[in-house]
Amino acid sequence: MSSLTRVCLSLVLSVWLGLAVRPVWADQLQCNSKAIAERAVSILEPGTIILDFCSLCEGKAQVVRVASARAVEDCQFEVELSGSVLFESEQTFKENYDAAGARYKASQKTYQNRVDLAYVYVEAAPNEFRWLGGELGLQASVNVRTIRLPDATYEGIGAHTHSSKLEKRDRLPAPDAEQVRRAWYHHYQGQGRPPLLVEAKPCLEVDTKKGSESRFECTRIVDAPVPNKTTVHLWTAWFLAQGDKHEDLMVQFLHGTTVRTTRDVKLEGQSFRTRHYTGATLNKPGDWTIILRRGDQELHRETVKVLE
């Protein structure tokens, strides 16, 4: 083998190895399903403040006021943000964030970026920014899950809106010992009791992807009038005694006062939380009512308006 050949092979091998050792966390949540991208867009409302920071990289943190967000079909679906950078960290962070020593300077840059949801932080509470992927129930490698800005920097943002679509699921107080004991008893020894409805909501999309962290969760609720011929589900979460089966439930879809569709609901207590969803296509303009019943008892109802 000639010297030139050995050099060429060495260069090719070096390049190949360089590509092979590319960090596995790069672009973790850049490409997502349409449902996840749209959920992220709904949270990133105009006027909200986000932090752009990669906790696994070497770079600066940016404080951004969102002007617009949209889902862009590319590698599946990406979230494209535009806005303005209000502050930027003076120092560069490497694979972490120095909360005590962080210093920021004012900025007037415009912001336009297709973001990775692992490296966007949304304001879950005043001056408490959490990584967006985690708030959406996704999995990724993240070194920093929550960031607080220096008080002076946060005050410099001024009045701003907080996302109305960010679920405050961890804001509930922890149950006391008696509540936990009663829940244990109901699940493990309460066979024969009625199923306990914990949550119900009208839903446009349910995540059915195998292996997804949000599998069987409602990923897009009905929060506005829907177009004609839209399929709407009633998504429910239940607390059942272990091993119990319930086949006496139904969901009715009414247009005005007329029942258009009836769906049976069958539940089985296989886990600590049981979820179910059933849907129908709302094919007439006007007000629709979705009613969940157990025998003659009405457990829940929702109203959905269908446009012309």
Number of helices: 5
Extract low-pLDDT stretches: 2-25
Helix-strand makeup class:
alpha+beta
Instruction: Characterize the overall form.
Output: globular
How would a textbook summarize the main sheet? 8 strands, antiparallel
The whole-number mean of residue pLDDT values reads 88
State the total count of DSSP E strands. 18
Proportion in helices: 10-25%
Give the terminus-to-terminus CA distance. 76 Å
Order of helices and strands: HHEEEEEEEEEHEHHEEEEEEEE
Radius of gyration in whole Å, from Cα? 25 Å
Q: Beta fraction of the residues?
A: 35-45%
Number of domains: 2
Fold and architecture overview:
- It is a single chain.
- With 308 residues, the protein is an alpha+beta fold.
- It has 2 domains: 34-157, no CATH class; 190-306, Immunoglobulin-like.
- Helix content is 17%, strand content 43%.
- It has 5 helices and 18 strands.
- The protein has helices at 3-20, 34-43, 132-135, 151-157, 177-189, and strands at 49-52, 58-59, 62-74, 76-89, 93-94, 104-106, 110-115, 120-125, 128-131, 146-147, 196-206, 218-221, 230-239, 245-255, 258-268, 274-282, 286-294, 297-306.
- Strands 1, 3, 4, 6, 7, 8, 9 and 10 form an 8-stranded antiparallel β-sheet that branches.
- The protein starts with a helix and ends with a strand.
- The model is unreliable at 2-25 (pLDDT under 50).
